[in-house]
Amino acid sequence: MLFRRLAKRLLFLFTELSDEETIDDVAKKCASIFAVTLVLYINQLLPSFSSEINSIFETACRAFIIINSASLLNNGLDIFNLRHAKRSWHRNNSIKGYIEIAKIIVWIISFILIIALFTEQSPFIIISSFGAIAAVLMFVFQHTLMSFVANILISNGKVLKLYDWIELPSSNISGEVIDIALHTITVRNWDNTISRIPTKDFLTEKYTNWQPMFTSGGRRIKRSFYIDQSSISFATEELVLELQNTTPLQKSIEAMLEDKESVENINEWLEDKGVTNLQLFRKYILNWIKQRGDVRPDMYLVIRTMPPTPMGLPVELYCFTRATTWVEYEETQSEIFEYINASAKYFKLDIYQQPSGKDVTNLNFRR
């Protein structure tokens, strides 16, 4: 108890440890090593047993010192890992996998020293004899070796770091990496559940890391709305006048049709140019999106028609928002498509949807 209290005071004075449990554990091991070493020294000065018992006693004491020293060294590795994680410039670089490998090496060395102690053989002779059972050891530790290789490739390749957002479709996992260990990578899913994936799976399974999207400053919108194909037609003078008289659309429509001022027959000009109500609508939405401050104009911005489907003619919007966080991104996307759905009627276009109960009721009423 005296040695333990002394060790705790020394740890408080000469280290920056703040965790009471860790300090107590380290102090206990330091005190045990010191006490056993002292007893061993006194026993050598004043032997109180027979030579055979003294030999067994000294061997047991030395084995105890080796085990506690190895455990103490592993505590030091844990403390180093915690300090590394707290440093702001190392926040995303986990070394936990390397720490666990170092712990395994420490215990292997301790195991060899204890065997050498009990057999009174040189540790080098014992190490050389391990060559005969190397294949067996590789078979036993094959998962550890594969995890170690995967951990090195992941860490050195910087393809995955702490706090990255990853998706594994095969395992239905989507969330934030909160721990990178030797055998497993821990992910906190967006529903606040915890998933652990074997590290080696990141070498064989398909996964997506969304973190580069955050650093790029642009998050992609790639989404379609469906136009009823029967509502698509050539633009007419009547439609153009209606659009020009609609306050929200006036400036954009006049800018798009500025070449028609010198034309006598507008309808012929529109047909010759192949101008349709859908084309006007696409260009209008494109100009409107460019004027929004929350969409990146320096990245791809396209509105295009896709091959027809039984659901109608898909019109795909492809752009990048400035907001990369989920809530702001979804708000921007919702605002854009709400505006698209509300604006389509000005261009005599119908957004397609499958027949509903209301459609059937109207059909019966007309009959």
UniProtKB/TrEMBL annotation:
Q: Where does it localize?
A: Membrane
Q: Which organism is it from?
A: Proteus myxofaciens ATCC 19692
Q: Which Pfam families match?
A: MS_channel_2nd
Q: Where is the Mechanosensitive ion channel MscS domain?
A: 144-211
What cellular component terms from Gene Ontology apply here?
plasma membrane
- Superkingdom: Bacteria
Which protein are we looking at?
A: MscS mechanosensitive ion channel
**Residues passing through the membrane, by range:** 97-118, 124-154
An example Gene Ontology biological process:
cellular response to osmotic stress
Molecular function terms from GO: mechanosensitive monoatomic ion channel activity
Q: Which UniProt keywords apply?
A: Membrane, Transmembrane, Transmembrane helix
